[in-house]
């Protein structure tokens, strides 16, 4: 169930949504979700924006993408390019990877290289529980 836009029920989830820098009127896409992901983050985003997250086959332009990605998921450059297909010109991608020392983690240097090859640049990093978030924007876009 989705609450009114901007309403997030627990403090930790609210803090995580604020650190993502999302606004309540945004359209947010989620890619790469699996059972190992932090569903509380996804749910908090849905509660905040007042809508369900859209998936990979959307026809809408999205303002933000939550891209869950693990080392075994394949080519990170391809995943980043795919994440940009529905992204608006000023949109952001939050690449969410397993934190350091966990199975499937990706080194920051690999993330930066993949971002550059896909036409993006990393602007900041945040920790969300067991997941490391890297905020990416199009090269030349808003930082």
What does this entry look like structurally?
Mean pLDDT is 89; it is low at 1-9. The longest helix is centred in the first third of the chain and has 11 residues, at 39-49. This protein starts with 10 loop residues before the first helix and ends in a 5-residue tail after the last strand. The protein contains 4 helices and 5 strands; from the N terminus they run αβαβαβαββ. Helix 1 packs across helix 2 (39-49). It has helices at 11-20, 39-49, 76-83, 108-117, and strands at residues 28-31, 62-68, 87-98, 120-128, 131-138. With 143 residues, it is an alpha/beta fold. It has a single domain, classed as 3-Layer(aba) Sandwich (Rossmann fold), CATH 3.40.50. Strands 1-2-3-5-4 form a 5-stranded mixed sheet, with helices on both faces. The protein is globular and about 35 Å long. Pfam families: DUF3052. This is DUF3052 domain-containing protein.
- Class in CATH? Alpha Beta
N-end to C-end Cα span: 33 Å
CATH superfamily: Vaccinia Virus protein VP39
What proportion of the residues form beta strands (DSSP E)?
25-35%
Number of domains: 1
pLDDT below 50 for ≥5 consecutive residues: which ranges?
Answer: 1-9
CATH architecture term: 3-Layer(aba) Sandwich
Sheet having the most strands: 5 strands, mixed
Number of helical segments? 4
How many β strands by DSSP? Answer: 5
Helix content, binned percent:
25-40%
Biggest β-sheet: strands ordered side by side in the sheet: 1-2-3-5-4
- Give the CA-based shape: globular
Structural class comes to alpha/beta
Rg value: 14 Å
CATH topology: Rossmann fold
Order of helices and strands: HEHEHEHEE
């Amino acid at each position: 169930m989705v609450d009114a836009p901007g309403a997030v029920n627990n403090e930790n989830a609210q803090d995580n949504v604020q650190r993502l820098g999302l606004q309540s009127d945004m359209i947010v896409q989620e890619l790469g979700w699996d059972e190992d992901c932090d569903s509380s983050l996804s749910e908090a985003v849905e509660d905040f924006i007042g809508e369900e997250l859209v998936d990979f086959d959307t026809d809408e332009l999205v303002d933000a993408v939550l891209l869950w990605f693990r080392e075994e998921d394949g080519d990170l450059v391809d995943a980043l390019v795919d994440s940009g297909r529905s992204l608006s010109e000023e949109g952001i991608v939050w690449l969410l990877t397993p934190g350091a020392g966990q199975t499937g983690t990706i080194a920051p240097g690999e993330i930066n290289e993949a971002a550059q090859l896909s036409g993006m640049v990393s602007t900041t990093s945040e920790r969300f529980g067991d997941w490391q978030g890297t905020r990416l924007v199009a090269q030349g876009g808003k930082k």
